[in-house]
Amino acid sequence: MSYIDALVKTNSVKEAKLAIKKAKKQGFDAKKLETLLPQSKVLEARIPYNNCPLCESNNISNSAVGDCSKQLLYHPMIPSIMQWMDCGDCLHQFINGHFTDEALEVIFSKQPENQVVGYQIEEQRYISARIIEKVIPFKSYGTWLDVGFGNGSLLFTADEYGFEPIGVDLRKDGVAALQNLGIQAHCDPVQNLEFEKSISVVSMMDVLEHIPYPKEVLISLYSKMDEDGCLLISMPNSESWLWKLWSKENRNPYFNSIEHYHNFSKTRLVSLLNECGFNIKQYGISQRYRCGMEIVAQRN
What we know:
This protein is α/β, with parallel strands linked by helices and 300 residues long. The chain has helices at residues 3-9, 13-25, 30-34, 101-107, 121-135, 153-160, 172-180, 214-224, 241-248, 266-275, and strands at 46-48, 60-67, 81-87, 93-95, 97-99, 143-147, 164-168, 184-186, 199-205, 225-236, 262-263, 278-285, 292-299. Strands 8-7-6-9-10-13-12 form a 7-stranded mixed β-sheet, sandwiched between helices. Strands 2-3-4-11 form a 4-stranded antiparallel β-sheet, with no helix packed on it. Strands 1-5 form a two-stranded antiparallel ribbon. The protein is globular.
């Protein structure tokens, strides 16, 4: 069977990916082969949400529509249309389904430059220092766990401030790079991990919106933290006027964000953190990404 036949006949994302990989080894233009993938090959890329992933209400309806085909991490095996949903009870907005393991494997096969460990290490050090100094009034020592550490800058800088750094990320190359530098790092969902020490600070910088079921993860983190442990979270704020104007003008970039499962408002995020046992200590504007907010919260 030719590689083209394999692509046309398979209904498996995994098999299609394997066919493209073999074709590339034999000198075929894999990029051109990818364009032969029909939409029927990507319908299994998401596991649908039948209820709101935060409050479990079934009072949900279609909302905005996005197109992720121009995103860096996009691959033809992934559906380009993104259907967002609104919860009529808790007012949360979320995508209509989270990715399967096969789809995630395809997405994580690429790595954005700004997520490579050591990326712009000098410039990122200043940004990370400003973030850490928001936490220090509430927690100034102990272990610092960065979930989704990306380029590692926050952990490098936390170490300078006297914290013991620990990283968690789903990109294997990043985890290996941190480990080679002597920093404890894990390539597993954080809720599946146990740590030798209680965690003093948990940072989730533009991460929570990538997690299929955020509440489960927050409750798990709460149980791993010091009694006065701090949680630092950043993400886009769908309540900001910038977000509202983008949406009104049909140019909101976050509706097209392939890795995002959630669009949080400040109100809904604060409510969720309260539900999971955290008190809000500080709100601020994030300089990491457009339309971002940062919240420092502390365990009750």
